[in-house]
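TL;DR need structure tokens for one chain.
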Amino acid sequence: MSQPDFSPAAERNKQPILEVLRQVLPANGSALEIASGTGQHVAWFAAGLPLWTWQPSDAHAGGFDSIAAWARQQGVSNVRPPLLLDVLAARWLPDDARFDAIYCANMLHISHWATCAALMHGSARHLAPGGRLITYGPYLESGVPTSPGNLVFDESLRAQDPAWGIRQLEDVKREAARAGLQLSERHALPANNLLLVWTRPA
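>> reply
TL;DR here they are.
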């Protein structure tokens, strides 16, 4: 069996994220992870939230073996086989597919801006009543000084692709509102990242 891919950042932040997920999620449910990458997050969350069923996905199938390998390493049985899912696609999944949570980490700043609207609208389609979209990563906030590290990171992203970059939280909130979602919780996490919870108003 091949060794799974490894992300140092995912290894550092998986436990702080899990601790917040335990606060904001009910005891059990089903979750879709968007842009699963190496699979470190989904395997760790599956072990830490064993009454949840986790559906990993990614726009590229090249990482699927790594996702499966991390699930095997954690010894979890509540991670489904990964799905090929491009958030920009008009149809993600069958129309009746519903999840209690949709989780997406570190995608918005390393993809074109169109993925933000696509994430919000696709999540609104596939969240069960009372479900939550959870996003994690760096954001720029009005009235909140940006850390030097995030400024350097933003510059490096834009040097790679001018369409990339850390997003203004207000811009993300507007896209969410167009999809019928609003920001309900903001959690500050290490390394100047935020975990945000988006819900549909009753």
